[in-house]
Prior knowledge:
two-stranded antiparallel sheet; Rossmann fold; 12-stranded mixed beta sheet; globular; about 575 residues; P-loop_NTPase
Amino acid sequence: MASDRILLGKGSAPQYLHLPLANRHGLVAGATGTGKTITLQTVVEGFSRAGVPVFCADIKGDLAGLSQPGTPKPKIAERAAALGATDFGWQAAPVVFWDVFGEQGHPVRATVAEMGPLLLGRLLDLNDTQEGVLAIAFALADDEGLLLLDFKDLRALLSHVAERAAELAAHYGNVSKATIGTIQRRLLTLEQQGAEHFFGEPALELTDLMLLTPDGRGSVNILAADKLAASPRLYATFLLWLLSELFEELPEVGDLDKPKLAFVFDEAHLLFRDVPKALLEKIEQVVRLIRSKGVGVYFVTQNPLDLPGTVLGQLGNRVQHALRAFTPADQKAVRAAAETFRPNRAFRTEDAITELAVGEALVSTLQPGGQPGVVERAKILPPRSRMGAITPEERAAVMAHSPIGGKYDTPLDRESAYEHLTGRATTVAEDPAPHAVGDAGAAPMDGSWAGASGSGGAWSGPWSGPASAGAARSPGGGAPASSLPPARRIPATASRGTARGAARPAPNEEAGGGWGDVLNDVLTGGGGRRQGVVEAMAKSAMRSMGSQVGRALVRGVLGSLLKR
């Protein structure tokens, strides 16, 4: 494979996805059972080998096969050779598993504040009036420096807004207690669906999605979404949040030799189902502008008409598998799909779409000059990894040697809006050893992601970068993935007040103690865990500064917090 392109397949000529133009986004479409998942697997492998990290959702469980080498079959090897893959071999990709529910991968969390009122309103299916009240609650939290981390913080904030409704009306607008009650009921419903697993800390750090192996391969981040997809609104909102976070946090880089990240949105129709016009406009804006951040977005769906025309028009790289035309509506979809391609005089595109065999597709990608390529009928290159699901034991083996380690395994519960608004704010023992990458019983991070399997097994190469011998690196040889910032954690067997009431020994004057040391202990907290006056004042000042910063926070394009 040339370093600047990915081989997709071959028709009358080889078909390539050109990496310098891969941030112009793409589409993989086709009816069920026509080979979309296999095509997606080939594309993801190509990105990884080219040094581009990938994030994708695995709804059916098939994409997990990327973590295992393919089963050697002569027919597949012959097909790969016939399509021009001279370096074809059976190989697993360096996979990292994620799961919102923390069952089949590393837990993925975001704070309520990061989600923002616009996406949270979408998640709760609120009407305009209810969204307005939710926006008022977020504005009040920003103005008063209240940390919104999880559901209990949001519940406490909404109750607080209801109690102060008359007082807040002059500055923020009218707030109905009935509306607050409706939002609280929606929160309860969402909580029963398991959404509370997603909100909290430690929140996901985007750098953990953009790791490279020392040999230059990009990590393949697979979100286990079989359970998540059972709640389509939660699934779509989560991926929208992640896309908006990438848009807000990544710097402008313009056009690069290859993307910094490829973001794959499977079952893309869920993103646009019943979406409010205001949110749709924001989505279109993100898709249009995120390419300048070095991110390529690839939508996977059955019918191209599942996507709004304004979004569809921005997808320069397209792979169209077969569509079935059994009804007038189906025939209309086929015509619409055909019209999006640059015509090829050798065949009629509309007819070809209904005639394609499994593993065959119409391919049109942006050429090196930026112009759309003439559509070609091509056979798609088979993937090097396993085509199909993996066993729980194989998943566990991959997880055991993940470069993320136990970083996200233990939930944290910091002092936040709930404690402040309910009068439960208290001093909690600091975590003596915040979890860095590789802690909490994970595989030792000695610079290698050591798998148990040898050749022919799952990826077992090292993940350390040359600039940091013990940590995975980001694209371009950047800084290693950071460890968790210090945060308060609820002890497993003690209440919040346990550390506060710990007994302290009396001062020993003969051993150099005395009132000077007593005063020093009072001011600084001494060598124990309890805060001294100076430490408490410093932390209070930090919280006050945080409140001032909170008042200056700018909401991002999808309502998430823009971190500056």
